[in-house]
Amino acid sequence: MEVVREKWGQLKDGRWAERFTLSNARGMQAVVTNYGATLIGLTAPDNNGNMADVVLGFDTLDEYVHGRGYFGATIGRVANRLSGGSFMLDGKVHEVVQNKDGFQIHGGAGGFHSRLWEAEIRNDVTGSKLILSYRSEDGEEGYPGNVDVQAVFSMIENGLRMEYRAATDTPTVLTMTNHAYFNLSGRGADSILDHVVTLNASGWLPTDEKQIPTGEVAEVAGTPLDFSRPTAIGLRIDESFPPLELAHGYDHFYIIDGDPCELTPAAQIFHGGSGRVLEVCTTQPGLQFYTGNHMADRINGKLGVLYGPRSGFCVETQGYVDAPNRPEFPAVTLRPGETYHHVTEYRFSNM
């Protein structure tokens, strides 16, 4: 099906952001804006076939520009935390812009989430695709190299596929993700504590008090972080367990079991009230599972709905946290002549 394209809102510099609606044969829709390559809507059917938007977000461009929480945004150059506001690459220290307490998070204040991307709609034998492109110039937020990035959105039979590609002219670091908040009830004001989660992950990364990895890899078995079997988010989220207390809930990096080069099932989330099931598959080696612990008490969301803490959960597929500063972790280095490439799919079904 064709992609519907429309002007959406104007930035302060006069440029217009656009909104794109993608559909599949089942009537599911994804809505994306080229501001931040942001997923602003995604519908999925419940057990009775009723469609509802299961992604939290806002009604206007201005709310995305001035809001917090990275709702639905594409994150880069480096997702998650980068300790000390610097990293060493090929013997040279690169200082990056710090936008948190002594470190950088999600690519800095001027990261990919805050940029206007170029848009192209392409139709081929596989269907319609929205191709968003951005050039991150040498020195942006402190990172070396001119990096050309693409985020490709396309509908699949049962959901949404996101494909990321990038190339650089100078050695640099890169690991991207999407920061969508989900609530499978289709009612963003509801708590997500009743959602039942299974994670295909037996290991996780312990952190310090700033939630920067210590370099250790630990087993989830025997801890409240263990989602190897279906478990309600709210069952253990408030247990007296230091990593949970530090993060005020779940906000932890899980190492996905399996081959990180293959499209692998990483997470499955089930909502009993609607019967909706979300399966996240990815070629990334890990994911950050976050339960909206730091969302404000009253966030004005879509259609006047008020969001609050734990109104949404995130499954942020990505490379290891702080990998540029941890040689023991799989590298996220990108060099000239190489192509950064990863795929994540959101697949929906009913139970």
Automatic annotation (TrEMBL):
<dbReference type="Pfam" id="PF01263">
    <property type="entry name" value="Aldose_epim"/>
</dbReference>
<dbReference type="InterPro" id="IPR014718">
    <property type="entry name" value="GH-type_carb-bd"/>
</dbReference>
<feature type="binding site">
    <location>
        <position position="251"/>
    </location>
    <ligand>
        <name>beta-D-galactose</name>
    </ligand>
</feature>
<feature type="active site" description="Proton acceptor">
    <location>
        <position position="316"/>
    </location>
</feature>
<dbReference type="InterPro" id="IPR015443">
    <property type="entry name" value="Aldose_1-epimerase"/>
</dbReference>
<feature type="binding site">
    <location>
        <begin position="179"/>
        <end position="181"/>
    </location>
    <ligand>
        <name>beta-D-galactose</name>
    </ligand>
</feature>
<dbReference type="GO" id="GO:0033499">
    <property type="term" value="P:galactose catabolic process via UDP-galactose, Leloir pathway"/>
</dbReference>
<feature type="binding site">
    <location>
        <begin position="80"/>
        <end position="81"/>
    </location>
    <ligand>
        <name>beta-D-galactose</name>
    </ligand>
</feature>
<dbReference type="GO" id="GO:0004034">
    <property type="term" value="F:aldose 1-epimerase activity"/>
</dbReference>
<dbReference type="GO" id="GO:0030246">
    <property type="term" value="F:carbohydrate binding"/>
</dbReference>
<dbReference type="InterPro" id="IPR011013">
    <property type="entry name" value="Gal_mutarotase_sf_dom"/>
</dbReference>
<comment type="similarity">
    <text>Belongs to the aldose epimerase family.</text>
</comment>
<protein>
    <recommendedName>
        <fullName>Aldose 1-epimerase</fullName>
        <ecNumber>5.1.3.3</ecNumber>
    </recommendedName>
</protein>
<dbReference type="GO" id="GO:0006006">
    <property type="term" value="P:glucose metabolic process"/>
</dbReference>
<keyword id="KW-0119">Carbohydrate metabolism</keyword>
<keyword id="KW-0413">Isomerase</keyword>
<dbReference type="InterPro" id="IPR047215">
    <property type="entry name" value="Galactose_mutarotase-like"/>
</dbReference>
<dbReference type="InterPro" id="IPR008183">
    <property type="entry name" value="Aldose_1/G6P_1-epimerase"/>
</dbReference>
<feature type="active site" description="Proton donor">
    <location>
        <position position="179"/>
    </location>
</feature>
<comment type="pathway">
    <text>Carbohydrate metabolism; hexose metabolism.</text>
</comment>
